[in-house]
Amino acid sequence: MAPNPFRVAIIGGGITGLTTALFIQHFCGSHPIQIDVYEQAEGYRDTGGGINIGVNAARLLHAIGVGDACNSIAGSKDGVWFTFRRWDTSDEITTIHSRDHGKVRQAAVSRAGFLKVLLKFVLERKAAKLHMKKKYLRVENLGHRMDIRFADGSSVDADLVLGCDGIHSRVRRQFVQDKAIYTGKIVYRGVIPMSQVAPIWDLPSHSVMFIGRGKHLVTYPIDANETLNFVGCFTEEEDKLGDLKESWSTTCDRAELLEKCGDGAELVRNVLALAPEKPSKWLINDRKPIPDWTFQGGKVALMGDAAHPMVPHQSAGAGQAIEDGYIIARSLAEHLDRRPAGNQISTDLEKWMHLYQRVRLPRASKVQQTSRDSGLLYHLRGPAMQGKTDEECMDILAKTVQERINWILGEDLDALYERERAQVLGLLEGAKIETEQ
């Protein structure tokens, strides 16, 4: 008898959810499997700024045939991750290269544009069925199945529930009790037509971080070089926040941003004078790494920002979410390859979901920590910079950033997976021998 389809419920239809659906279909599509994506929004909106997809994640997208489409909407960074420059003079501190390999290269894209690409592939490949206006409430383990409840009163069954519902994840809150911690930083974000920027831009690359004490500005091209994305980050005392939230929908007047940049280099001031009249503004919270991402005997797993929410200072969050999708899909394929015929639930699922956690949790937790540290580094603060001159701080920054980005972009994820897979196979074989004795 043919086995029943293995049912995967993905909570959240953003970047993490859609890439995970594509990876699962790619690696598990030879098995009877049903993938459903549940998104609480009514539809996909053309909002949000730019995101960086590092070459570590780009190679995974190319492995499933999505990379070329991603490149087509990306801004050209010409092999430069970022050039770091002084806030007050725009003089170069150091340039970090992106480890590109031909078409397998970093991609600076708009979030909305990338979601359109992913949605197109999901629909064309019939990778998953999308369900909109589905606000997750809770999941219950009924033994042979997981029962998922939504705010509209409906419920669905699944064999595996993946929490891909972002930084304010409801799935996470059901299993993890922790609090957001204010980092002491606020950000302003917006996009500017490149046609307006071109007459005033006199640097060889648009991919720049302007670094100063207590502040930094990030710029890079998106939308096939038609748009410049900017993010300005500033130290701010908590008692001055007012009702500011951790939300992309909050805005402010452009004049407020310009006042913050009054001591910047001429290029900094001229670029931000072109900012939208109402740039986005929000505070940056941080969350500590958690020890477990899988729950309910491996039937629930957290991914992306729901698993490892990180501050944005290394432009690594989207890439880490894509790595999650790749590894959980390979881990699930291992389980499905071994699932007894006709058996919808197998106790081995927990072990293979634990493989996903073994591969991803230490690396993502380290990226969380180095992103946190980079926030201090870019503001010329932190233990290593105490008592140092600006020039000494710039030297520390150049060396530290190079080492961190080389590791993030260069880690061999497949080799890491194979090492941990061998460990799990050893545990399974040991358990089998013990049972037979």
Q: How confident overall, as mean pLDDT?
A: 94
CATH topology of the largest domain: FAD/NAD(P)-binding domain
| Count of DSSP H/I helices | 12
> What fraction, in percent, of the residue positions are helical?
25-40%
Task: Tally the beta strands.
Answer: 18
> Hey, roughly how much beta strand do the residues contain?
15-25%
Pick out the low-confidence regions: none
Indicate how many domains the architecture comprises.
2
Report the biggest beta sheet as strand number plus sense, adding barrel if it closes: 7 strands, mixed
Distance between the termini: 31 Å
Q: Strand order of the main beta sheet, please?
A: 5-4-13-14-15-12-16
Q: Under the CATH scheme, which architecture of the largest domain would be assigned?
A: 3-Layer(bba) Sandwich
Structure notes:
- The protein is α/β, with parallel strands linked by helices.
- It folds into 2 domains: 6-76 and 105-179 and 289-436, FAD/NAD(P)-binding domain (3-Layer(bba) Sandwich), CATH 3.50.50; 181-286, D-Amino Acid Oxidase, Chain A, domain 2 (2-Layer Sandwich).
- 38% of the residues lie in helices and 23% in strands.
- It is built from 12 helices and 18 strands.
- Strand 13 and strand 14 form a beta hairpin.
- Helix 9 runs antiparallel to helix 10 (349-378) and helix 10 runs antiparallel to helix 11.
- It starts with 5 loop residues before the first strand and ends with a helix.
- InterPro entries: FAD-bd, FAD/NAD-bd_sf, FAD_monoxygenase.
- It comes from Cladorrhinum samala.
- One of its GO terms (molecular function) is FAD binding.
